[in-house]
Structure formats: structure tokens, C-alpha cells
Amino acid sequence: MNYVSTRGGAAPTTFRDALLRGMAPDGGLYMPARWPTLSAGDLRAAAARPYVDLAADILGLFAGESLPPAAVRAAADRLTGTFHHAAITPLVQLEPNLWVLELFHGPTAAFKDLAMQMMAVMTDAALEGTGQRLLLLTATSGDTGAAAVRAFAGAESVDLAVLHPLDRVSPVQRRQMTTVDAPNVLNLAVRGDFDDCQRLVKAILADETLREGRRVSSVNSINWGRLAGQVPYYVAAASALGAPHVTPRFVVPTGNFGDAFAGWVARAMGVPLTLIAAVNRNDALARALNHGRYERTAANPTASVSMDVQAPSNFERLLFEATGRDADATRGFFETFARDGAVDLAPDLLAALRADAAAVSIDEDRTRAEIAHAWKAYGRVICPHTAVALAAARDMAREGGPVVALSTAHPAKFPESVAPVLGFEPPVPPALAAITGGKERLTVIDADLDQALDAVKALAGASP
Ligand SMILES: Cc1ncc(COP(=O)(O)O)c(C=O)c1O
Ligand SMILES: N[C@@H](CCOP(=O)(O)O)C(=O)O
């Protein structure tokens, strides 16, 4: 299986290389050259298979021969040891047409653990025997960084730099990143928003001098390895609901559009499903799909803090597909966006995008109301991100047919948003019990490339 860049200026490469590069050298994102397929029989069988078996098979389809099959299997098996639920991603029915897919039973209590734990094992395998060190860069609005620190702290051949927006992640998320005492981890708190952090990470990835003597990659969802690890739960959930004979609608709380794009991939592989991206009031994606103009504006702080994103990286993958994989058009679009901060979508392109995904924006009042409703109606304490998805999903469930809201984080990561609505603190799961104490380690920087590069070079230079 080869991987091509959405911008067409990089040589096709393997899964292993895409994993160890993060982004293509031409500034594009890697995509499989063709979509592997799941047959109707595969989908029927999937409903009865353990999650880790399904995950191993799907990862194997994407990894091809570039990683040893035993490493792919070990990556999937990692979930058994690190998740606190036997089903890994349990599907829970709330109403006749409404389900939640619980994705927060991992070691940092957010859906990022599903792919990140597997990436740590695959990254080890990809580096084995090379004698190379890998510098991993991560922009986070809270959860990716926590999952990455958990997965890579202490890793022998890896350095990890995590950039989060100063004071714009929850205190629990911040402590998950900053209280881990590992010499290979650097936390940078950036005076800015998540989009600034993501811009800095992409700029650092483009700095070729850093690559002298080491590999440099990212564990954000710009890395194909992350998306590959997020596809299995769509397959598992759709199969459990009766695919291929049933077409569930998945409502995905969305920030960087990685999770939703993993659903798009499942559909490209043959899973019948419909995608609805639910965003908070940071609605660049919803404005693009609903009004035809993709425009960057400053991110507004919300209760669903991890979705405070206004330049979702994976929109590039969606656009690449909607143009019929036209790399020149994709490059032109994102160069214009980088220069002007806005691009109007031509009517045929907009129609193609709308055929792939719909988007709704849920405001802060509805988010709070949904947290209250979930407790009153179902006895469930939900996080604000889940609330954004569930608010949209409940509307859709009234129309008939199965609707699944993705529940992406445990509410105990966001007590400051949940407790004022419910009047009590969310119960703390085992995964979060250990992070209350401990000294925090973080360096505050401006949203400035030189400052970020200096800090990252110091981390990389300090390594053996
Ligand atoms: C809890 C939670 N829900 C939803 C999202 C949005 O996911 P994505 O960025 O893949 O759209 C994030 C951040 O990634 C998150 O941390
Ligand atoms: N919401 C994310 C932002 C980064 O998203 P990613 O999926 O591209 O890693 C976070 O919590 O960090």
C-alpha cells in the first residue's frame, strides 16, 4: 500500500515512512493511494469479533508490508492492557434510535488513546534496527497531548514536544501533560490558541535542519497512523447496528476533523454510514459546508475546549477527495487559505463536500442544556464535547434510523464545565485518579516560530 500527498509534490511512500514523517514534505497530508475494502461478509462478521482483532486487521490493511504483522498485532493488543472496559469501545443505547459510542475508557480518558496507544507500539517497530531517534511534535487543545505524553513518556528512542494554548485547556488536561516527569517530554504553553500551536508544529515539521541526524514527525491527526487507528470503532459500531443492511448516522464532535475523517475512511472502505460533524461555536467547518466560504477567524473559548479549532487540518483530506483527488486544486486552495485566510467554495466542489458530510454548530447554551438533559433523561454524566454531539444526534434520532453520538472524553476531565450545570462533580474514573498531585513542568512561550524552534532544539539536543 502506497501513500500519496494531498498536494501532489511528494514521492509516494509506505505506511512506515508516513508514520515517521507525519506530514508529506510538500506540506500536504498523506493518503492511501487506494482504499482497502471490507466485504459485506467482513461487516457481518465484525459484529461478533473482539475489538482488538478487528483493529489488528484494519491496521494491517493500511500498514501493508511496511511493518511486521506481529508488530501490528501487538499494537492492537496494547488496547487490551490499557483500556478499562472489556469491549474497549462500548456502544450504549439511550433511546429507540439513539446510541452513544463510548470512546473514553483508555488511560487518559479520551478517544485519542485508541489510536495513540497503537501508534506507540507501531512507532517502536518502525524505528527498530534503524538506530535513529524520533522527535515527535504535537499541537493539542488538551486531549491529544495528554494521550501522547502517556503513550511516549520514557520511550527510549523518542523525544516528544507538546504545544498547548496557555490557559486554554482544562486544568485536568494540563496536569495530565505537565505532571509526568520524563526527560524525553517537553511541554510548551503557547500564548495563543490551538490554531497557533498547530501552525507552529507544521512550520517546525517543515524545518529541514531539524531532520539532520534524526527523524521528525507528529502524532496529531495529520499523521495517517492516527486516522488508521480511529477507523476500527466506526466499523465495530456500524456492524453492531446491522451494517451492511443498515446505514447508521454518526454524529461526531469535531475540532480538527480527524475523528470525523476516520469515519469517512470507514465509508470509503465499504461501511454504509452517514457523517454529521458537530462543532461548537468555533464553526469554520460548518460555515464552509453550510454557506460555501471557508474562513479562518480567531477561536472562541468554549466549554468543549478541545474543539476550539478554526483551521481543521483534516479538511484538506476531505477537500482532496471532493475534488476527485486533484492535488493541484487542493494545493491551490490551501495556499490561498494560508495567504488570505478565506476561500470561497465553487458550487460543484461544495456539492461534492456536502455529499460527504454535513455539519451543525451547537452553542454554549445548548451544550449546557444537553449536559443537564443527559443526566435527567438517561442518568448519564457527559462531557461538553459529547454534549455537542448528543444535542445534534437527538434531533436526528427523531427522524428515524439509528443515530450514534460519539462520546469522546470522560466528564471528569472537565469538572469546571459539568459541575455548575449538574450541581455535583463528575465521579473520577481510575484513569484520572492519579493526577491530582505532582509538580507541573511547562515552559511558556509566545506564538513565535523562533521561540518554539529553540525550545524544541534544546529538547532534541539534550538527547543521546
Ligand atoms: C474530547 C474531544 N472530543 C472531540 C474532539 C474533536 O476531534 P477531532 O479533532 O478529531 O475533530 C477532540 C479533539 O480532538 C476531543 O479532545
Ligand atoms: N482536539 C485535539 C486537537 C488536536 O487534534 P488531533 O486529532 O489532530 O491530534 C486535542 O485535544 O488535542
TrEMBL record:
<comment type="pathway">
    <text>Amino-acid biosynthesis; L-threonine biosynthesis; L-threonine from L-aspartate: step 5/5.</text>
</comment>
<dbReference type="InterPro" id="IPR029144">
    <property type="entry name" value="Thr_synth_N"/>
</dbReference>
<dbReference type="InterPro" id="IPR051166">
    <property type="entry name" value="Threonine_Synthase"/>
</dbReference>
<dbReference type="Pfam" id="PF14821">
    <property type="entry name" value="Thr_synth_N"/>
</dbReference>
<feature type="domain" description="Threonine synthase N-terminal">
    <location>
        <begin position="2"/>
        <end position="75"/>
    </location>
</feature>
<keyword id="KW-0663">Pyridoxal phosphate</keyword>
<keyword id="KW-0456">Lyase</keyword>
<comment type="similarity">
    <text>Belongs to the threonine synthase family.</text>
</comment>
<dbReference type="InterPro" id="IPR001926">
    <property type="entry name" value="TrpB-like_PALP"/>
</dbReference>
<dbReference type="GO" id="GO:0009088">
    <property type="term" value="P:threonine biosynthetic process"/>
</dbReference>
<dbReference type="GO" id="GO:0030170">
    <property type="term" value="F:pyridoxal phosphate binding"/>
</dbReference>
<feature type="modified residue" description="N6-(pyridoxal phosphate)lysine">
    <location>
        <position position="112"/>
    </location>
</feature>
<dbReference type="InterPro" id="IPR036052">
    <property type="entry name" value="TrpB-like_PALP_sf"/>
</dbReference>
<dbReference type="InterPro" id="IPR000634">
    <property type="entry name" value="Ser/Thr_deHydtase_PyrdxlP-BS"/>
</dbReference>
<dbReference type="InterPro" id="IPR037158">
    <property type="entry name" value="Thr_synth_N_sf"/>
</dbReference>
<dbReference type="GO" id="GO:0004795">
    <property type="term" value="F:threonine synthase activity"/>
</dbReference>
<keyword id="KW-0791">Threonine biosynthesis</keyword>
<dbReference type="InterPro" id="IPR004450">
    <property type="entry name" value="Thr_synthase-like"/>
</dbReference>
<feature type="domain" description="Tryptophan synthase beta chain-like PALP">
    <location>
        <begin position="87"/>
        <end position="398"/>
    </location>
</feature>
<protein>
    <recommendedName>
        <fullName>Threonine synthase</fullName>
        <ecNumber>4.2.3.1</ecNumber>
    </recommendedName>
</protein>
<dbReference type="Pfam" id="PF00291">
    <property type="entry name" value="PALP"/>
</dbReference>
<keyword id="KW-0028">Amino-acid biosynthesis</keyword>
